[in-house]
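Thread title: Can someone regenerate the structure for this chain?

I was given the following input by a collaborator and told the matching structure tokens would be attached. They weren't. Posting the sequence so someone can regenerate them.
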Amino acid sequence: MEPMDIFPNDIRQADETTLVIDWSDGVQSRYSVFKLRAACPCANCIDELTGNLLLDPKKIDPNVKPKGLVSVGNYAIQIAWSDGHDTGIYTWKRLRALADSEST
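Best answer:
Regenerated them for you:
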């Protein structure tokens, strides 16, 4: 895994539907918690060999929300979701790419 020079200074839930990350380069990213859940990178949600989505977003509770966040080393967070799912590790690189893709 390659190191990332940009990292979160702060991660917080702005409201029930929005997670906010203040990045070390001064950028603030806002994430729909539903979209974050749908973008879970674990092997149950994305095929490890093909990269194809296994999770049907239509089957996610529209009111899903984070129940807890855990740091994973200096490179990621793991989110425990209200639907019981908690195996996805969201790297800083992935989170930043998700934010950048929403703003373009």
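The chain is about 15% helix and 35% strand.
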